[in-house]
Write a structure and sequence with these properties.
There is one protein chain. With 213 residues, the chain is α+β, with helices and mostly antiparallel strands. It has five helices and seven strands, in the order αβααββββββαα. It is globular.
């Protein structure tokens, strides 16, 4: 008696299994929270008044944080303080908007970054505490990737990945402040932040969180 021929070939069984796995991955990703938060600090050998102008100016940000688009940046509003903004619409990284929403010199700066037409958002706080002429700068970020089943997985890694990037950016800022660089000077190769962060842990979300994004 001959063996019965299975109703489906091996290829169909494999494809069906992969399809089921993909559905499971998407369902789990949709259920994962898309929110994240992280925090890093650095001590800078300078008074808070010298550090603050680097924090409340979008143009100054482009010199110590590396992930802004190469083209299409538009500055608007005041050069420093509440209402200072930077927007972009770049074919490689998409659209986005950075805005200083609070600036209380020389103690605190708060900002907001929205990308992909506002579907992803980051809120950041920079706190300055001066003691004996030195400034402890604490940088906190929290974000929301929205209802995206794939970004739910990435949000779980953001505390480590984004935290490593904040630490890298703080090191660049510390070097600029301590060498006495002018935050309002034009950008140049000697003072600009590195074009890309080093190391796997400092990778950013593609088209999502330019620093701060």
């Amino acid at each position: 008696m001959s063996a019965r021929t299975p109703p489906f070939g091996l290829g169909a069984v494999v494809l069906g299994g992969l399809a089921g796995l993909l559905v499971l991955v998407l369902v789990v990703g949709f259920l994962l929270p898309g929110t994240w938060s992280t925090e890093r600090s650095a001590e800078i050998d300078a008074p808070a008044q010298a550090v603050f102008p680097w924090l409340d100016s979008p143009r100054a940000w482009t010199r110590w944080t590396p992930d802004w688009p190469d083209s299409g940046l538009v500055m608007a509003g005041p050069a420093h303080g509440v209402g200072a903004t930077m927007s972009w619409n770049d074919p490689n990284v998409g659209d986005g908007h950075f805005e200083v929403v609070e600036a209380d010199a020389p103690r605190v700066v708060r900002y907001r970054v929205e990308v992909q037409r506002g579907t992803m958002r980051t809120d950041g706080t920079l706190l300055l505490h001066e003691h004996d002429g030195r400034t402890l700068l604490t940088w906190r970020e929290k974000g929301d990737f929205g209802h995206n089943p794939l970004m739910g997985y990435w949000a779980r890694a953001m505390k480590r990945v984004q935290g490593a990037q904040l630490q890298n950016d703080l090191a660049t800022l510390k070097a600029l402040v301590e060498k006495g660089a002018d935050p309002d000077a034009p950008d140049d190769s000697a003072t600009a932040a590195p074009a890309v962060p080093s190391g796997a842990d400092t990778a950013r979300v593609p088209e999502a969180m330019p620093s701060g994004v």
